[in-house]
């Protein structure tokens, strides 16, 4: 048998070394029942497996509203320890396996040291593992954070990439991946079947899953052979890419290795001009300067050398950049200077022009949900010709912001299939892709020539050439770095969270990406085109060459919560601390009132129009159930019920998708909402879907890094880069007890939509 390539094998304890989980879960459920709670066994396994008693106590308090204090924790520990002494058995075959393994081995468990040692003493395994026994109590953060595994490697002098972790919980697999270690999922404990363990671990995509501990030495040897066949594992890790994400208010850059791990990140703000209501403008040179500073910072933070960066790509908001024939800036503002040359994606100045596009009934609208949005580029260009004819006459280039950045970086005038198909009415599945008769019908027939738009778009990840000498100097990179055709930012996020599933075409339509921040965007992939009103698309080949994408969304979600904080008399500045304070108070009030908190207060969250599934940019928000209460608690109740409305809006979009042929049951959430515990809970409970939170530190950057790695030659195509660089995620399943409450809320939500439309008709 070949020597195991892992210098160190790290074992979890419960469920991996000792068959303790049924005992622990049984004791926990008894104590929950005594405290007045009602949690079924399946939920207990799903939510608590692999977590410490202290963490479980906090979850019972914060998520389930149980008064679970220190006395309950100690009683649970005492009950578990007593049953361990009488009932605990080792995992079959573990003693033989430990004796057969060469190299170093260790235990790294979420349990306290006292419990680990008791477990190993009772089962006779302690002498085979001492002195390398480690507990989450030794580090600041337990699993799924990587802290414990990294502590073990530091203590034992082994690099993380030379370690293999044996785990039976999603939290443990997540921690191993975050630490940069290989992870084997073990499903041989007596709890595996009733806990649905194999399915839960498959979502985490460990290197392999096995159910007989006696197979482990051979599996490790096969892993060593596979690594040898691939050649020196560190070779691709010595090659890096740079991913740049340009959002509404800042540019973020990350240096990422060939396995998708973010090594360094930096961010720099972007200026925005608001000369009039519904007008928002950028200075594209300011955007480029922010990008350069972010890239320089990320490179410094990563420790990588400029010459090691093989590729770079950009994702950006779908903002419109206007340049003259020499590539110089042209103003788009009605009141400000020429340097404000970019109409920001959220700018709604082109409402009337969007309505004119919709009124044509043209076939391109079949891929826009039947309704043109003022956020698309066509109505913005129509507005520009009408209100800034001087700029229109001098224009030589019209760019989507991501395409402007690749042009600035490489000098190539190629445009991404993602940007053109999603925002410019380009039909990537047809030949020709542009429908000239549509542009003639809306009065901008010369748009393609005036904007220097190519006849054919380039797939995301297409190598557009090297960085120019000027761009390389600006960014702090070299001219050996290749530039990849980029993406609209939300599509980069979708690629980042769905990369692990794009290779399984049979089930790809079960997964929905939810990119949630200032606004929210949802993306669904399918093998066949699925078209219907209220959802943008389907767009062909905008992330991967052979898949269709449908896009829905909510125009204001995080921005709406910010607005409510500013608007309410007890609010103020909507910074992170204020959001955290409100969320904490909501949790406190829910311990008394549960999900019925402020149950007569209902919010229709369309304060900035309805993107999906109604495609009504004129829609407005509605709040029903306000009183004269102006206290901080009233703000918290409004915040909570607005969050419910936002989650029900996602459910509304899901229903529209699933009625048309999708079978979505899993949401992959990324963006700022992952830091909001109320929204993350609601996305599962209000929709009835499993929610996956990505392990990637920044899933949008991961998606763009996949594109950069393709252009940079690290992988032969985007699909290969997805398979190699995906990071997996942690699952949260819906609470069955919440279903009835949110079903009632959803019926009210739909009725509010009906009544709002009826009132609009009367007006």
Task: Give the overall silhouette.
Answer: globular
Helix content: 40-55%
Secondary structural class:
alpha/beta
Mean pLDDT level: 90
First and last CA, distance? 80 Å
In CATH, the homologous superfamily of one domain goes by the name: HAD superfamily/HAD-like
Strand content: 15-25%
Widest β-sheet, arrangement of strands: 19-20-18-17-23-24-25
- CATH architecture group name of one domain: 3-Layer(aba) Sandwich
Q: Give Rg in angstroms.
A: 27 Å
Output the CATH topology of one domain. Rossmann fold
Give the beta-strand count: 25
Structural commentary:
Helix content is 41%, strand content 17%. The radius of gyration is 27 Å and the shape is globular. With 763 residues, the protein is α/β, with parallel strands linked by helices. The strands form five sheets. A seven-stranded mixed β-sheet has the order 19-20-18-17-23-24-25, with helices on both faces. A six-stranded parallel β-sheet has the order 3-2-1-4-5-6, with helices on both faces. A six-stranded mixed β-sheet has the order 9-8-7-11-16-15. Helix 22 runs antiparallel to helix 24 (632-659). It has 28 helices and 25 strands. Among the domains are: 8-231, Rossmann fold, CATH 3.40.50; 498-555 and 653-735, 2-Layer Sandwich (Nucleotidyltransferase, domain 5), CATH 3.30.420.40; 558-648 and 738-762, Methane Monooxygenase Hydroxylase, Chain G, domain 1 (Up-down Bundle).
């Amino acid at each position: 048998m070949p020597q195991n390539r892992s210098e160190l094998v790290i074992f979890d304890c419960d469920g991996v070394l000792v068959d303790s989980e049924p005992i622990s879960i049984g004791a926990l459920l008894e104590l929950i029942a005594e405290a007045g709670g009602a949690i079924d066994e399946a939920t207990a396994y799903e939510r608590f497996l692999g977590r410490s008693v202290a963490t479980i106590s906090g979850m019972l308090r914060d998520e389930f509203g149980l008064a679970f204090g220190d006395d309950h924790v100690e009683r649970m520990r005492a009950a578990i320890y007593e049953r361990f002494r009488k009932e605990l058995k080792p995992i079959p075959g573990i003693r033989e396996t430990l004796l057969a393994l060469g190299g170093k081995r260790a235990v790294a468990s979420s349990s306290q040291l006292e419990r680990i040692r008791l477990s190993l003493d009772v089962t006779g395994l302690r002498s085979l593992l001492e002195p390398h026994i480690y507990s989450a109590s030794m580090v600041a953060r337990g699993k799924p954070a990587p802290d414990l595994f990294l502590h073990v490697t530091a203590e034992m002098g082994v690099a993380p990439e030379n370690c293999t972790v044996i785990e039976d919980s999603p939290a443990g697999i997540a921690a191993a991946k975050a630490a940069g270690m290989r992870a084997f999922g073990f499903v041989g404990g007596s709890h595996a079947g009733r806990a649905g363990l194999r399915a839960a671990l498959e979502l985490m995509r460990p290197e392999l899953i096995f159910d007989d501990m006696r197979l482990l030495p051979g599996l490790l040897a096969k892993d060593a052979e596979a690594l040898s066949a691939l050649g020196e594992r560190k070779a691709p890790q010595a090659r890096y890419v740079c991913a740049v994400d340009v959002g509404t208010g800042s540019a973020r850059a990350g240096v990422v290795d060939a396995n998708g791990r973010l090594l360094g990140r930096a961010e720099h703000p972007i200026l925005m001009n608001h000369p009039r209501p519904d007008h928002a403008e950028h200075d594209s040179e300011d955007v480029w300067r922010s990008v350069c500073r972010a890239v320089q910072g990320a490179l410094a933070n990563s420790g990588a050398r400029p010459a090691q960066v093989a590729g770079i790509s950009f994702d950006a908001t779908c903002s419109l950049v206007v340049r003259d024939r020499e590539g110089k800036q042209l103003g788009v503002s009605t009141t400000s200077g020429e340097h404000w040359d970019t109409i920001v994606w959220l700018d709604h100045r082109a409402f009337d022009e969007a309505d004119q596009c919709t009124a044509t009934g043209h076939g391109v609208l079949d891929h826009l949900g039947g309704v043109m949005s003022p956020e698309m580029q066509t109505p913005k260009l129509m507005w520009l010709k009408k209100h800034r004819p001087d700029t229109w006459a001098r224009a030589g280039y019209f760019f989507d912001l991501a395409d402007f950045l690749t042009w600035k970086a490489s000098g190539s005038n190629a445009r991404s299939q993602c940007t053109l198909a999603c925002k410019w009415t380009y039909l990537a599945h047809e030949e020709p892709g542009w429908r000239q008769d549509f542009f003639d019908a809306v009065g901008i027939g010369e748009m393609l020539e005036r904007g220097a738009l190519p006849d054919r778009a380039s797939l995301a990840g297409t190598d557009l050439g090297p960085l120019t000498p000027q761009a390389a100097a600006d960014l702090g990179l070299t001219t050996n770095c290749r530039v990849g055709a980029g993406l609209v930012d939300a599509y980069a996020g979708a690629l980042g969270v769905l990369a692990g599933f794009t290779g399984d075409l049979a089930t790809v339509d079960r997964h929905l990406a939810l990119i949630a921040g200032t606004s929210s965007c949802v993306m669904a992939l399918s093998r066949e085109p699925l078209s219907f009103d209220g959802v943008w698309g389907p767009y062909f080949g905008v992330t991967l060459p052979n898949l269709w994408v449908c896009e829905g969304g909510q125009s204001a979600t995080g921005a709406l919560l910010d607005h409510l904080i500013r608007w309410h008399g007890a609010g103020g500045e909507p910074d992170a601390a204020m959001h955290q304070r409100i969320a904490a108070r909501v949790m406190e009030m829910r311990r008394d009132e549960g999900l019925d908190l402020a149950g007569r207060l209902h919010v229709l969250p369309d304060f900035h129009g309805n993107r999906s599934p109604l495609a009504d940019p004129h829609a407005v928000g509605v709040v029903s159930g306000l009183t004269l209460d102006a206290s901080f608690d009233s703000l918290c109740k409004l915040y909570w019920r607005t969050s419910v409305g936002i989650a029900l809006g996602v459910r509304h979009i899901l229903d529209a998708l699933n009625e048309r042929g999708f079978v979505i049951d899993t949401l992959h959430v990324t963006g700022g909402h992952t830091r909001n515990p109320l929204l993350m809970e609601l996305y599962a409970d209000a929709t009835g879907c499993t929610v996956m939170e990505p392990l990637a530190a920044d899933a949008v950057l991961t998606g763009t890094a996949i594109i950069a790695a393709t252009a940079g030659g690290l992988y032969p195509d985007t699909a290969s880069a997805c398979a190699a660089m995906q990071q997996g995620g942690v699952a949260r399943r819906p609470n069955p007890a919440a279903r009835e409450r949110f079903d009632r809320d959803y019926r009210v939500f739909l009725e509010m939509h009906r009544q709002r439309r009826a009132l609009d008709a009367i007006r």
